[in-house]
Amino acid sequence: MLVYLMRHGKAERSATWDEGRELTVEGVLQNRSVIKKLFSRSPIIDKGFVSPFERAKQTAADFHLVFPGVELEETRLLIPQSDPYDVLNLLEEKQDHHLILIAHNPLLSRLFSLLVDGTTEGARQVETSNALCIMMDIIAPGCGELKYVLSHD
C-alpha cells in the first residue's frame, strides 16, 4: 500500500473559527507547485480522504483538478487534533487502495511518526505544502518506509 500525506499550504493566521481559515495566495501557489511535482512522479492513488476544514478542502480542490479520477471523501478523522491511531485503523480498512490524506498538523506529523517510527512522539515534521509518500507492506505502527518528500521550494 502507498500512503500519501499532504499538508495544506500557508493559511491565514486567524479567522472567526479554525475550521474556516483559508489558504493565503502564497499557500495556494505552494500547493499547486507540490501537486505538479507529485503529478510528474505518476503516483498510484486510488482514493483520497480530506479534512473538512476549509484550507484542506481548498488543497483538495487543486489536487482534484490535476487528479480528476481520484475520489475524495471528507472525514473528521483528519482534523488537526484527531488521534493518529484512528487514521491507522482507516488505512487498515482501505489497505487494498493507495490513498492520499489531505490534512493538518499536529495530526500529520504524529501520523508520519507513527507509521515510520512506531510512536506518535517522534520528531518527524510535515511542513506546509509537503507531500510525502510512504510505502507500507503491513499496516501497523513502525512498518512504513518513507519513499520521498516533495516541497514547494
UniProtKB/TrEMBL annotation:
Superkingdom of the organism of origin: Bacteria
Q: Which SMART domains match?
A: PGAM (SM00855)
Q: Which Pfam family name is an example for this entry?
A: His_Phos_1
Q: Which InterPro entries match?
A: His_Pase_superF_clade-1, His_PPase_superfam
Task: State the name under which the record lists this protein.
Answer: Phosphohistidine phosphatase SixA
Q: Which organism is it from?
A: OM182 bacterium MED-G28
Question: Taxonomy-wise, where does this protein's organism fall, top ranks first?
Answer: Bacteria, Pseudomonadati, Pseudomonadota, Gammaproteobacteria, OMG group
